[in-house]
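Field reference: sequence -> structure
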Amino acid sequence: MPIKNILPPLLLLCASYISIPVQAQQAPVDPAISVEFSREHQSLSNGYPAWNEHTLRLARSRKQEMHSEVSWTSARRFGLQNEQYAAQYGQALDQQLYATVGASYSPEHELLPQHSVEGMLQYQFAPGWLIHGGWKSMHYDAGSVGQGTLILEQYVAAFSWALAWRPTWALGTRTYSRELRLSYYPGDQDSATLSLSSGQAILAAGSTLLLVDVQSAALIGRHWFNSRWSASYGLNSTHVSNLYTRTGIRAGVQYVF
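Structure field:
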């Protein structure tokens, strides 16, 4: 299986990252205004053309109290080019409860939703324990898709784990996917996360929506060089039914003003 093929190099890279000594570094500026540019390239099997995506994000944050951002994404898949504009706002309601809302719009909407809205609540019900619950509604020309999210998360020293369950309503049926995330935090803001997921998902291509079986493995993270500059990275492999296997890499750079 594709996940078995990619797990050894992902685990080796994760182990290598953990073995790097933690160096003293300045905490990122707070409150912060940041700009980030990232690029993602995905190679597909069975003769499908590669996917490419570019994202520019402008964000403002204040520790755990508030986060807002706007972004522009240009995605090319199956020979089609789509742009997406998105906005998100998160606010702490008290010391235990945090709320996030967001929306997006795509003028072409051949690959990406024409528009979407979402909301999420995060609640800390015990020291180190969090539960997240939310809903996202996406509209395509071929129909609407609704997706719920329920996540249980625990932080232990420099590590955390999370279990996620995502029910999806589309094409007159209900399905779901599940995910396991394991994270390591070697520095004040640095992070490395290994994600394993499986289930069913919606694949959009032109005016068609498909319900497909998906298995995915990914390693994502961020490293701060100082209080102004950071880099993000991602490696992933996704097996989509009997259609193709998608293997990709993502890299980004962020600057804080």
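Note: Residues 2-19 form the longest helix (18 residues).
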